[in-house]
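Subject: Sanity check before I submit

Could someone independently write out the structure tokens for this chain? I want to compare against mine line by line before I put it in a report. The sequence has 380 residues.
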Amino acid sequence: MMSLSEPELKNLSLDSKPAEPTNHISSCSSIDRTRFVGNLNITSDDQEPLLKEDGHRFVLFPIKYHEIWASYKRAEASFWTAEEIDLSKDMHDWDNKLNADEKHFIKHVLAFFAASDGIVNENLIERFSGEVQVAEARCFYGFQIMMENIHSEVYSLLIDTYVREPTERAHLFDAIDTIPCIRKKADWALTWISDKKSTFGERLIAFAAVEGIFFSGSFASIFWLKKRGLMPGLTFSNELISRDEGLHTDFACLLFTHLERRPHPDTVQAIIAQAVEIEKEFLSDALPCKLIGMNADLMCQYIEFVADRLLVALGNEKFYNATNPFDFMEMISLSGKTNFFEKRVSDYAKAGVMTRSRGEDGAEAKEAGGGGMFSLDEDF
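---
Independent answer below. Compare away.
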């Protein structure tokens, strides 16, 4: 594989350039907030059943929202910890099998992931957990916050393990401030957290895009390393984390369907399209996937494919009509062809939890587990 020269590599990192100002695709101010579908008698978020203050929100039973509860039990059954990731074999591959381009790519992807999980948690803690009044959904968000902490710990451990030089390590840990291509993605997400004019539904779409689109290309790039038999600790953690993020994206789509007044499909498409353009730029220009031998055009097609999946899960029509160009991703099902509870990429599920959940509430669990859930690999 052809390796880029050292000067080219430095240019790709964009580390020496100041952060670029956000443009029209990275601002939520360009979204039309005047159009909605559903119950148009609802004029503000605090009138939404999911968001309306409820005196029963402190008591869990009786379960009212069975699909939401089933999503929580599904997440609970997938619990794992950072200590279960074995990195002992990765350093041999890092030192002997990866070239400078591949190391550069992996380090910057890990830097993005390490920062992004903290941003997702910032939104959950600062906004969503306080806004949602339904106890079943609060259970899910509480568990998601814990899992995002575990993801962040794993990414930090990976950087700490692979990057031996303290100054470079600190540079990667501070990626939001030091690496503009990562800052651009972070700025888009942070803008949605701080925006006081956006509705809950709009922000739900935006963070479904963060976890479903901003992560998708990077997940695929690490699965590409798995296909090549490299970095078993990194790729196994990627399986676990991508599965979790699929569940989180599913949950965002599920809550969206429970909103009685939802953003217009054009608004949904506009928000998703913003995320797609930022992600394409990230993996084709700013941190090109060609560094690890992946085709940039196919990566852009894959991002469009994932975006179509997300659009359909949010009730829209496909916009890009893209097919999955990566055959190796057909083996990675987050919620589709292979039942998540019957065949896992790992054996860490707490089977007793799900057996009990399905036994007590079988119809609802079945309904919640099928149909229009978001997936990174499944074709239509």
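---
OP: Matches mine. For the report I'm noting this point. The mean pLDDT is 80.
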